[in-house]
Amino acid sequence: MKRFQNKVAIVTGAASGIGRATAIKFAQEGAKVVLADINDLSEIVSEIEKIIPPLGVRGLKVNIGERADVINLIETTVKTFGRIDYAVNCAGIAGKVSKPVHEYPEEDWLNQIQINLIGTWYCVKFQLEQMIKQGGGNIVCVSSAAGLVGQPENSPYAASKHGVNGLVKSAAIEYATKNIRINAICPTAIETPMIMHGRRKLAENPEALQQAINFQRMKRMGHPDEVADVALWLCSDQSSFITGHCMAVDGGAFA
For position 188, what pLDDT does the model report? Predict the structure, then answer.
């Protein structure tokens, strides 16, 4: 029996990276999946349709920083599949520049807070409303190692992810007796488009790439599948006594 047979999962940020890997693994484990992303989802939808019947997957264009988009995501999921058993909130953005706090562009700062923190709050808020109605559910937010420690010249990203961890811990306490578990994952250097082509452009900067690799005690980058496996474990009954946890997935970096 597959772990998530006939269950319903939402995955935001599903077009690439950790979100994409998570969506595929949910499908492989028997879940019906709703994929949300601001980017094109046609490729990942087609891939998942090879795993489960086409009626078991739905892709929606969603900007999680827009309240109306998130409400539509929740309402469409419930209208299509009847409930939301699991939500893995992977959507987020990285900064465009590396600057100290007093020099950081205000627009970029506010945008990261809007997407990473307020957008994640929208997701959690409306997912919780539905899970309360149906009597339970499970939420995992993909935060970051930058939510566990300071990150010089990347302050808005670190601030937003510290905020996500605070949101997760607070919500976990509030809903601990309502059959709803809420946890976070805090990855370090995972080989995703965001880190390879984003602010630090590791794909184009061998020195920066080596620095990232050296920071991991395993001396390698993590893979999106490795983070997705943790997300599914946190959603599963195998982690039934875990809530409010912000789990480092870090190759031993913080050991």
Answer: 84
Give the separation between CA 112 and CA 230, rounded to whole angstroms.
25
User: 74-91, pLDDT tens digit by residue?
Assistant: 999 999 999 999 999 999
157 given a catalytic annotation: yes
Paired tokens of 234: 């946190």
Residue from 104, 122, 157, 175 carrying the catalytic annotation: 157
CATH of 8-192+223-249, one of 3.40.50.720, 3.40.605.10, 3.40.630.30, 3.40.50.2300: 3.40.50.720
Low-confidence ranges of the chain (pLDDT < 70): 193-203, 208, 212
Burial of 83 from C-beta contacts in 10 A (0-12 / 13-18 / 19+): middle
Residue 206, pLDDT score: 81
Q: Rounded to two decimals, what is the model's pTM?
A: 0.94
Domain ranges of the chain: 8-192+223-249
Three-class SS state of 16? coil
Distance CA 128, CA 1 (A): 28
